[in-house]
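User: Sequence in, structure out. Go.
Assistant: Echoing your sequence, followed by the structure tokens.
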Amino acid sequence: MNTLGHNLTLTTFGESHGPAIGGVLDGFPAGITVDTDYIALQMQRRRPGQSTVTTGRQEKDQVEFLSGLLDGVSTGAPIAFIIRNQDQHSSDYDELKDLFRPSHADYAWEQRYGIRDWRGGGRSSARVTAPVCVAGALARLAMRKLLPALDITAFTSQIGPYSTNPANDMDYTTVMAESNIVRCPDAELASKMEEYIKQLRTEQDSTGGCVTCVVRGVPAGIGNPVFDKLEASLAKAMLGINAAKGFEYGDGFAVASQRGSEHNDSFCLENGQIATKTNHSGGIQGGISNGQPIRFRVAFKPTPTIGREQQTVTRDGRETTITAKGRHDPCVVPRAVPVVEALTALVLLDQYISSK
């Protein structure tokens, strides 16, 4: 499936080394002023080649809108857009035509379709997250009008052995996260993360990590029960990001060792409004927002393309080895931060529309 959402849907298209990638956003509210500078900012946060800890591929990621806007305002019609690829080095992948890269989608994709795009992975490349950031920026612009109190803050909370203290999640801000190239709001920890990534790059290796997202200003009553729970929709969106391997919200897997007396969020009154004393539930109960901040975490695996020699198999069944070439992120986490925020905005806007 290349489509996300129910009432607000995003369909993306294109491949890593094709002429362009893009998307169609349908169900977007009419009358929203589209700030192209804001969209460009979000694209810059995700684009390749932005720092010394990302891939060297250089893409301007300029967005061309094809429909759905009139004088910079949404009309309610589908918003179609494209982003032209400009810095493909397809020849870097020539020797991979007949090899299956370890921990990539190559083998599984060919088993599914009988054919695969060996040029950077085609649709399985993280390049396809660029249209997600365009649509997410549009969703956030709509939320400024529909839910002005909404604030979405994602940040790098772990890279390899270095991780932030979850007790501080509510204290971190986007400004703090954007103050360094790894997007960690703890400056001292960010420096260690940066050096660790650079060390692994020299060792021709890679690392995984986590992105934490905190959403403030979500009113109670957003979401649906059973199979379209708010947390399930968020999980589906996040696990659709390339290299995402885990999702947890609230206390996540830590609840397995907790007692009910420890985990339960007792209700109380704050300024005459119903609230909870704690937020172990991560702002969602019964699949519906309860008015408290939504908090979740996404785990990403180490980038599978590394410069070290690895064992693999050819398409015709011969065992061999591979030493990857090309331009790749030694850690995907810093560039995943804006993607997590974009998908959060899309899911919340979709659920908000369905709750009205």
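User: And one key feature?
Assistant: The chain has a mean pLDDT of 92.
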